[in-house]
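Next comes this protein:
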Amino acid sequence: MADVSRQLKDVLTRVETWPPALQEEAVRTLLILESEGTGIFHVSDEVWADMQDGLAQAERREFVSDEDMAKANKRLGL
């Protein structure tokens, strides 16, 4: 376990030298790992805003057309 702790400290030190976008991805990944088993999932402000936009669209009954849904399903092989 001590070896893992040392490795973690070493990696986190290196993470501080990474470009900001990569640091943000590292934080998101660690938050996901931390939330496993707790039932709590942390999302970024951007993702939260997107979720709120989607909920507002649903409340206004603004849904994708059946035609667009069929196109997306076909593209995804569904």
User: Anything to note?
Assistant: The chain has a mean pLDDT of 89.
